[in-house]
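User: Okay, second chain of the day. Same drill as before: sequence in, structure tokens out.
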Amino acid sequence: MPPIRDRFVIHSKAVVCQDVDLKGDITIGPGTVVHPKAAIFALVGPIVIGAGCIVEEAVIIVNRRKDVMRIGDNNLFEIGCRVECPSIGDFNTISTRARVHNTVRMTNHCVVGAQCLVVPAEDETLDEYTCIYGPAADRRTWSGRGQVQEADLRMKHAEYLREMLPKFNRLRRSDGA
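Assistant: Same drill. Structure tokens below.
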């Protein structure tokens, strides 16, 4: 297997801390915040992260497929989660220490609860507003109530992080900068 060629494209409005572990072909969109100690590995295919995402500490995002791993806008990856799914829509939340396998595709407004393990035997696409919760990874559909408030809160969260992280951490820039 040929060695992985590192190529990072980080938007000028994104906040990516210096001690983030990046490997492979990675594109990070505007307004996205990547905390220290996160790891993003494009082992085979590239990873494209959209605008306004928040990637917290100890998060591991891995692409083991040749296809592009697309992560939509305004997604929240909480502390210690591991995500390998090839497609993630917009406004999704993967909670603390949750794991999402590469056989899962997420649409929009999905929530994977804390410590949930989502590993289906065959490829699966989560419908919009799917919530996975509990030790048995039970599922239900969210009504969408409070969606505007959640979006506003997430925007405020990202805005606060974009303001505070540069004060206490060194930032990483794109390859060309």
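Residues 32 and 52 are 4 Å apart (CA to CA).

User: Thanks, on to the next one.
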